[in-house]
Amino acid sequence: MPIPRYDEIQYPVLCHLADGVVVKKSEFDAPLADHFKLTDEERTQEYPSKNGAIFHDRISWALSYLAMAGLVDRPKRGYYQINGQGRQFLDDPDGMRAEVNRRIAEREAAAKQAKAAENTQATGNETDTTPQEALYSAAEKIRANICDDILSTILGKTPRAFEHLVAQLLHRMGYGGGISDAGKVTQYSNDGGIDGVIKEDILGLGRIHIQAKRYDHDITIGREAIQNFVGALAVAQSNKGVFITTSSFSKPAIDYVATLNGQTTVVLIDGQQLARYIYEHGLGMQDEQTIVIKKLDGDFWDQFPDDTATDNEN
After folding, report:
1. 7, 33, 209, 263: least buried by Cβ within 10 Å?
2. pLDDT tens for each residue of 268-282
3. pLDDT at position 304, please?
């Protein structure tokens, strides 16, 4: 049979997780290939670009959509486990497909709304998009999926490791410039509410203080936590701070930061923005594939004379 689409793989994947055991991504290939009765050639068939096996890639996408829809959890990078929401659909494949489609549509709608706010054109109707717009849309979906993987990976690390990661990220983003050891993580105990410090200049006269909180995505950081951080900045005699979390901030917390009026500058970075920064600045990332699109070089072609109605010698 032909290699199944990723949406055809989703329900068998969910059933394979039914016993509640945590399963590594690579361990899905063999049982699912047997389920679909694939030949050895179909199991190992690669994309024309030789950028990986098609069947394994489609399993990866099936798992990613199930995770994004909230039917499976990712205890750590590359591992999956069914949750209570997913168990509700073990005997309801049609309901599962509808739920996945609904949740993914909600995510994409939210992403498009955010892009529209930045005056970036986005549409879900492929008949209204150019091939280039469709390519950008596909790239955005891939990036969103990888950003989810980034957050899942971070949540599998220790809080101390997260503090070191944040210091490295800010340095990668240009804070501290070329100063060696520009980023420093404070002592684990008695840190006074400050998790790290970034030097802005070689003498260390300017400093940015960091608060890093590795929380599950369903936790919202409120105004009180930000007020405590501002108080810690005052004790440290600093007026610049970055509060970074893997979760999100409440509206009162965001509004409070807006009322500081520059006396103390605090930047809030939530989990989604954190993952994007890690992705865009290549921290712990590898380039997987580069697609090159070419266009005509006008200067090159303009040096050749144009054919005209009175110049048809050749």
Report:
1. 263
2. 999 999 999 999 999
3. 85
User: Residue 246: what residue type?
Assistant: T
Place of tokens 């069947």: 55
Where do the H-state alpha helices sit in the chain?
6-16, 29-35, 40-44, 54-68, 84-87, 93-117, 131-155, 159-172, 223-235, 251-258, 271-280, 298-302
Residues 15 and 41 in one domain: yes
The answer, yes or no, to whether residue 313 has pLDDT greater than 70, is no
Residues in the chain: 314
Dihedral over Cα of 303, 306, 307, 308: its sign: negative
> How far is CA 71 from each of CA 7, 106, 130, rounded to the nearest angstrom?
14, 15, 33
Q: Which residues have C-beta within 8 Å of that of residue 295, sequence separation ≥ 6?
A: none
User: Are both 10 and 151 inside the same structural domain?
Assistant: yes
For 158, the 3-state DSSP assignment is coil
- Distance from C-alpha of 74 to C-alpha of 151, rounded to nearest angstrom: 10
Rounded Cα distance between 214 and 89, Å, is: 31
DSSP secondary-structure letter at 208?
A: E
Contact (CB, 8 A) for 156 and 77: yes
Q: What is the pLDDT of residue 118?
A: 56
Tokens of 77: 């990078």
212 within 8 A of 245, measured Cβ to Cβ: yes
Q: In what order do the strands lie in the sheet with 23-24?
A: 23-24, 79-82, 72-73
For the chain, the distance separating the N- and C-terminal CA atoms, rounded to the nearest angstrom, is: 54
Q: How many domains does the chain have?
A: 2
**Domain span including residue 227:** 159-280
Q: Judge whether 295 lies within some domain.
A: no
Is 89 inside any structural domain?
yes
Checking if the pLDDT of 185 tops 80, the result is: no
167/273 Cα distance (integer angstroms): 15
Q: Is the pLDDT of residue 297 over 70?
A: yes
The pairs formed by 283-289 with CB atoms below 8 angstroms and a separation of 24 or more are 283/165, 283/168, 283/169, 283/172, 288/51, 289/49, 289/51
CB 210 within 8 A of CB 244: yes
**CB 296 within 8 Å of CB 267:** no
